[in-house]
Recover the amino acids of this structure.
């Protein structure tokens, strides 16, 4: 009734012993007894095929055309169609007659068949998770493979650029970002560009220790507060930087043409809307504005 696959096949009297009985010592074999004239069989078979494929080789589905294979029908005493029998270790261990819902069939199979592990995580998602954990080298390794297969993958390019930025390869990171086409990942691209901006800016600023000394002497030293926030951003000390920028904005929103406000928005783009710090500080910024 349908095309064979590595896990789904027709069996005959000549092949039943090898493909069902013998094979069931290696993995369970679900046998579907069906006939062309049987309407419920035609409903059940696609469902059995779907279930068999979901087990990725841990379960085989053998189909017996009862109009043709009368010897098998007589041997197993099949009296109604459809009938489904599960073979394991050379003998029938479970089964049912008539069509059943998918949940019931899976419940019948569960004690007898090992469900395969979930498919491996998407490589790009794995790279993102590693990046989020600070494992930049491992993330970069996955991304190099991905981009070797498709060097136009915008998400992979953006994340790869951020990995490069983490090891201070700023020019190479910029070149990678310049290769990103389209607006589909506009926010992520803006965030990556903001990261490069912070790193470049920080390289030209006084050391964090000197800036902290200046602020200790004069807490209203707006330039030192802003420069320290940039240093903190370059070191991924996001909460400290956001707090300092918000206080600077509240105290002197016109400082350097509103640079504190602009920088806050850049950090929001860098971290992304789902980041808890963005949620918190976007709300605080709104309160400060209005």
């Amino acid at each position: 009734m349908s095309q064979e696959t590595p896990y789904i096949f027709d069996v005959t009297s000549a092949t039943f012993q090898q493909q069902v009985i013998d094979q069931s010592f290696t993995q369970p074999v679900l046998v579907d007894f069906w006939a062309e004239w049987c309407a419920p069989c035609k409903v059940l078979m696609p469902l059995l095929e779907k279930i068999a494929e979901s087990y990725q080789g841990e379960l085989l589905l053998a189909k017996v055309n009862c109009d043709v294979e009368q010897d098998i029908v007589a041997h197993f005493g099949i009296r109604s169609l459809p009938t489904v029998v599960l073979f394991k270790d050379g003998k029938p261990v479970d089964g049912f007659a008539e069509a059943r819902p998918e949940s019931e069939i899976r419940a019948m199979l569960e004690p007898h068949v090992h469900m395969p592990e979930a498919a491996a995580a998407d490589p790009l998602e794995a790279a993102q998770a590693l990046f989020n954990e600070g494992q930049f080298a491992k993330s970069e390794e996955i991304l190099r493979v991905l981009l070797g297969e498709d060097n136009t993958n915008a998400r992979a390019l953006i994340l790869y650029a951020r990995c490069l930025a983490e090891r201070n390869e700023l020019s190479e990171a910029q070149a990678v970002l310049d290769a990103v086409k389209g607006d589909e990942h506009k926010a992520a691209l803006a965030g990556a560009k903001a990261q490069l901006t912070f790193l470049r800016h920080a390289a030209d600023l006084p050391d964090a220790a000197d800036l902290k000394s200046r602020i200790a002497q004069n807490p209203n030293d707006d330039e030192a507060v802003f420069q320290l926030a940039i240093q903190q951003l370059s070191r991924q000390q996001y909460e400290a930087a956001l707090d300092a920028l918000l206080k600077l904005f509240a105290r002197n929103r016109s400082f350097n043409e509103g640079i504190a406000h602009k920088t806050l928005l850049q950090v929001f783009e860098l971290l992304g809307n789902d980041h808890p710090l963005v949620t918190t500080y976007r709300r605080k910024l709104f309160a400060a504005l209005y």
Summary: The CA atoms of residues 14 and 69 lie 10 Å apart. The mean pLDDT is 92. The chain has three domains: 8-109, 123-184, 205-289.
